[in-house]
Every structure is written in structure tokens, then in C-alpha cells.
Amino acid sequence: MKRASTLLAAAAAVAACAPGTADRAGDGAQASSGQGVEQLRVQVERELPHDETAFTQGLEFAGETLYEGTGRNGESKLTAGPAGRPPERSVDLPDEFFGEGITVTGSRVWQLTWTSGVAIERDADTLAERRRVSYDGEGWGLCDQEDRLVMSDGSATLTFRDPETFAAQGSVEVTEAGSPVEGLNELECAGGDVYANVWQTEDIVRIDPGDGRVTARIDASGLLEEGEVTSPEAVLNGIAAYPGSDRFLITGKLWPKMFRVTFVPAN
């Protein structure tokens, strides 16, 4: 969970995942699983500046515009503008809302809240609020597969939702080697797959949304220098696919940088 009471646990997790110290399964473990899970890593092409005060919860491109949703009560907002530059548009959430994942679908942006059970529909151009819709449980990540939305709640379950009404349309459990993958956080839909940050780790998993099977695990460790991690909450969270390419933009909560990357074999 993301509550203040877990800061000590988060600190331990960040320390365990500090650059160069992550303990990861090798090729032998992959082969023994028999699941054909690709082992990938990030290959950095470019660094871009990022607002280090942004508690990033959602990141997504629509054309050349980068949308970013941030969290924390009294600090949550949604911004839009060119990647790596100050936002051209910004809107604050009411103080009672802890902002979470976002996605752009058509002319609308959906923005989740963490424990309020409220999804906010906004105009994609102006970011103005259009309406609010209720849902059960927590909201973490969100992405758009054109005919449906995919939503995470911090568990191993992904819920599918109608992009216009936000009504639930079923769900799938995400598994790797037959075991549930908990902590699914920020999501990105790309090429028919769903990519998910795994909370409190430096891993991203690629998921087949048809059966929930993890088809690749991506090692995103070592992007920041040790001195650049200034808070136990500064964990990897934020993945956006560049439209029409195999590149992704990734960042983290309170990170001073974003990284344009491709995913290449871990070997």
C-alpha cells in the first residue's frame, strides 16, 4: 500500500533495489519455469528533466502531448505539455483527493483517485472536469486499449472498464509461472499488451491481457545515481509509450529525470 505507515517498509524496499544491488532471477530460473517469460532490460537513449516534486502516478502520451497525473492529498494534479518541458496546462485536484493513474481516450482523460472510489472525467484539451463516476475498491493504474480501459488496484487483478461509462466489464488475474503478481501499479497499454510497474520494485512486467500471463519482465534498475534518490517514496512509477514506435518514457515518483528507453534482451 501507499500509506504513510509503510514508509519504513518502503525504505527497505528502495534500499534493496538501489542501483546495482537488485537481486534478480537469472536465465536458469527463466528456463526452469517453463513459462517462456522474456528477461529484458532498459536501454537508455536520452535523459529528460522531470519535476522532482511530482509524485508521479500516471504518465501517458496522446500524440506529442505528455499527460502526467500526480498524487498526495493537497498536492495532486494533472498536467499536459511536451515531454521534458514545463507543462502548458495544469489543474489541481480538490484537497480531499489523492490522485492516481490516468489515461487519455478520445476527447477525454480519466483520472483515478486512490481510496475515494471516484474517477474524474476531464476534457483532454482543457483538462476541465466533466463529471465524476464512482467505483469499488482502490484506484492505482489506468490505460486505454481503444475499446476498453484497463485498471489496477495494487493487487494481482486487472479490471476492464467501459471507456465512456467507466462501468466494469470483467477482470483477469495476472500470473507469472503460475503465481499471482501482486503490486500492479501504473499501467501502459501498447501493441495489444499491458505494461505494469510493480510497486516498490525496479521491474516492469509485460502482460497478455487475454489470459493475464506475464510474457516479459523488464529490469529498470540503475537509472538514477544513488544520491539522486532523496526519499524512500521515490520509487519507479510512470511508463508511457511513444506513439508509433517501440520506445517508452519512464520515470518515478519524485525523480529529477525521465528516460527515453527501449527494451532489449537482458543478456
TrEMBL record:
It comes from the Bacteria. This is Glutaminyl-peptide cyclotransferase. It comes from Prauserella alba. InterPro entries: QCT, Quino_amine_DH_bsu. Residues 68-94 are annotated as: Disordered.
